[in-house]
Amino acid sequence: MKNLSIISFLFMVIVHPVLWFDDIHAAPLTLFSDASDIYEPDNTYTQAQVIILNHGTSQQHNFFESNDTDWVQFFGIKGQRYTIGVHSAQKNCDAIIQLFASDGLQLITEMDKNPAGDDETLELTLSDTGIYYIKISNFDNVSGEQTAYALRVFRPHSCSTRLVTGLVSNSVTQHPIKHALIQTQAFDTGMSQEDGRYVINAIVCLSEPFAITVKAHQYNTYVSALSFAQSGETLFPIELIPEGHIEQDYYLFNHIWPYKINPFLVTSSPGNITSNTVLPKLVSSHIAIDSQGNLYMADSEKHCIKKMGPQFNFLTKWGEKGINEGEFNQPQGIAIDINDNVYIADTGNHRVQKFSSDGSFLSIIGRHGNDPGQFIHPINILPHKEDTIYVTDQHHIQTFKKMNKLPRSRAIIVSGYSEDVSHQKLAATACHTLLHQGYSWDSIRYLSTPLENQPKFNDQIDISPSNMALEQTIHDTDIDTTDLLIYLTGTGRGDAFSMTADEWLPFTLLNNWLNTLQSKSDVSVLVIYDANQGGDILLSLMSNSSYQRWGINSAKAQQQAFFIHGGAISFSSFFWHHIFLGKSVYDSWETTYEIMHHQLGIQTPQIENSTIGSTAQSIFIGNGTQYQSAQNEIQGVSCTMTDNIAHIQAKVHYTPNPSFSDSIESVNAFVLSISEPSALTSTKKWIEYPLSYSDGIQYSALTDTSDWATGMNQITISAIDTSGYISISNSLTITIAPPCLPGDMNGDGLYQLDDLILLLKVLTEG
Q1: Distance between alpha carbon 329 and the CA centroid of its chain, in Å?
Q2: Collapsing DSSP states into helix, strand and coil, what is residue 586?
């Protein structure tokens, strides 16, 4: 037997034979065959099904197969007492009860007090409200016949119970919602299953009406009164409203400019932003007039909006100081669209609110922060046509487009094991790109270790990378998600990706997780893989043509993927830059293919899809908002040799991105031996040289060529600006002659029989 492990500061555990108010043996166990465990597979916490608390019928399990364990989960309330009981155990069942926290990893306590064939009981008071996992295993891993048992979890009580069932669904899409948490005012709890269905056994000690509360991630909290049916179970369907859903009135971030760009100078066509005129300090307009001549005024001091008629007669006002819908904190800017809807720059709350002309709340746009789609004290608003508004804050000008419904795009960014920080930087680059293309941190799951001097991204890391973390993240993807992006960067091998120094993710396992997800929903999946030892990930991911799935590998299966200059020159760097500019998935891949395969000649990116007829040219990551690219035109690349010294020169003509304040950060030369161009092998090594700035466009460096390989060497120039945009020059080829060797008659750097024959021939002819 094992000793009991108790975390005393979390809660008090009392284990002893107890008189349960709701007798655990009240529902007799129906003996079943050793092979009939209907809850399988349930061998990990991610496969745990919800156990109904206080249910009249126990769950029936067994340990028929070797290494079999059984997991269940329940929603528990802080301060409430729960009993976990294994009963009706057969003679070869010596059950161990273990309780885990909501992450499924932290063991809270365990119990194995009695011998095989006896009941096992764990009673405890919970220290926190949340999801708990129960693991049942057999002592010494005994399996086979006579290992059946019954499992029950409940809160002791002395009241009657009523069964309540129903479906939890999305009020907009009608899709079922899994993992919704249901609670009554009597602390009865339940959870919705994968198909959205739930069952709770409500303890009825109070007079009706009976209140029920439902919570789910990214949905508004649902509260309602519940009336029980006259007899039998009570059917109670629940529809949850997605967060941000307000009468089909959505605004999605579309574009961002620095403060120097003034879209208000081109109001006849605000979508064509070309002016670089520096704005004076904007003074917000506190007054606006609608099409009927009514005047609206933002009263910053009293935190409200006042409406007056054409004769300045008072009509109405709305709002007070606060953070809820229809409340304000020093509102400043105000604007009216062509439908007389009213937009308020709720400056102190760092957001914009939209109302009808009578003050009825319609929508909230943006929130506090520095990322795209967020504000720091918004002050001015310009509605444009019916579907776009421009908003200025202290630092930026942003556009938001009206949508009929919010897209349900999700992304999982994974920075796996690496000996340097280049992959962490690329993962952060991917997040940065997604934010500029309409994603928010709420729709990104970020698996990485912290990156030095990057608090903005480190603060958003959800969890360190591991197989269990990625499996759970994929498993938790909402069933109404329309598209899922998975980006993996780090170290790979032929059949797996390195999550940590000690843990590998087999591609077949990732494929199984995605199959499970896509078998339950219509989500399309795009996997982008960039690891420095490649691997045949596409072969695994594209094996099932039943699901809409795209795969991109930065190199062929047997090629090395390069990460030069800290990852600045890599497949990921070029690919994410073109996604940032608003190009489609295929166009971004094709442009990057040209650079990596033809221009640099170092690796061959691959792209495949599982569904015939699909085209990546019509697939965009995020909004597909187009940004104008900076232009680094590299001209006049040359290299002159004097003894062992190479003088490398290049001219860089730089045209900055008009939407960002950029400049050239560095210009570098990269030298690669190409004496054996037939193989793109993992032994290729680059030598990097920084070029110094001289006269405005000229960059140069003097380098010692003693480290260069004998034969043909490829010289490539890169120019990187402060926003991370990279330009690559056409390559220049230089031949390094072998050192002079006495007796080397043919100049191949070797003294062999060929040289002796040639020497004898010269002497004979002489």
Answers
A1: 32
A2: helix
Pairing of strands 711-721, 698-704: unpaired
Strands (DSSP E) along 35-193, which ranges? 49-50, 59-61, 70-76, 81-87, 95-100, 107-111, 120-125, 130-138, 149-154, 160-170, 181-184, 189-191
Residues 6+ apart with CB under 8 A from 81: 123, 124, 125, 155, 156
Burial of residue 363, with CB atoms counted within 10 A of its CB: 0-12 exposed, 13-18 middle, 19 or more buried = buried
pLDDT of 684? 55
Helix or strand run (H / E) with residue 761: helix 753-765
Token digits of residue 349? 């709350």
Residues paired with residue 734 on neighbouring β-strands, in sequence order: 713
b/e per residue 672-708 (b: at least 16 CB within 10 A): bbbeeeeebeeebebbebebeeeeeeebbbebebeeb
At residue 161, the pLDDT reads 82
Residue 299 DSSP SS3: strand
Exposure b/e, 26-57, CB count within 10 A at least 16 = b? eeebeeeebeebebeebbbbbbbbbbbbbbee
Q: How far apart are CA 260 and CA 282, in angstroms?
A: 11
The CB density around residue 641, as the number of other CB atoms within 10 Å, is 13
Q: 663: buried, middle or exposed (CB in 10 Å: 19+, 13-18, 0-12)?
A: exposed
352/281 Cα distance (integer angstroms): 20
Q: How far apart are CA 525 and CA 550, in angstroms?
A: 6
The closest alpha carbon to 387, from 441, 352, 341, belongs to 341
- If 0-12 CB within 10 Å is exposed, 13-18 middle and 19+ buried, where does residue 442 land? exposed
Do 631-736 and 160-240 have the same topology in CATH? Answer: yes
In the chain (766 residues long), the average pLDDT of successive 10-residue segments reads 36 35 41 64 88 87 88 91 92 93 87 91 91 91 88 84 88 83 86 89 70 88 80 85 68 65 37 39 70 93 94 93 92 91 94 92 86 86 82 85 76 93 90 88 91 82 93 84 93 91 94 89 90 78 80 88 85 90 90 88 85 64 74 78 85 66 75 58 65 78 83 82 71 74 62 72 71
**DSSP helix/strand/coil, 657:** coil
Could you please state the CATH topology (level 3) that the domain comprising 631-736 is classified under: Immunoglobulin-like (2.60.40)
* C-alpha span between 605 and 593 (Å, rounded): 6
- Domain 409-618 fold is Rossmann fold (3.40.50)
Q: CB of 258 within 8 A of CB of 436?
A: no
Q: What token pair was written down for 618?
A: 């019509």
The predicted structure's pLDDT at residue 535: 65
Tell me the CATH number of domain 13-154, given options 2.40.128.280, 1.10.3720.10, 2.60.120.380, 3.30.499.10.
2.60.120.380
The Cβ-side half-sphere exposure at 376, using a 13 Å CA radius, reads: 8
CATH of domain 250-403: 2.120.10.30
CB-based burial of residue 86 (10 Å sphere; 0-12 exposed, 13-18 middle, 19+ buried)? buried
CA distance 154 to 77: 12
Q: How many helices, marked H, and strands, marked E, lie in the chain?
A: 8, 50
How many alpha carbons lie under 13 Å from residue 407 in its C-beta half-sphere? 22
Q: Amino acid identity of 264?
A: F
CB 735 within 8 A of CB 708: no
Q: So what's the pLDDT on residue 487?
A: 97
| Domain residue ranges in the chain | 13-154, 160-240, 250-403, 409-618, 631-736
CATH of domain 160-240: 2.60.40.1120
The closest of 486, 426, 488 to 457, measured between CA atoms, is: 426
pLDDT of residue 501: 93
The pTM is what? 0.58
Residue with tokens 């329309």: 482
Written as six digits, the tokens of 362 are: 């319609």
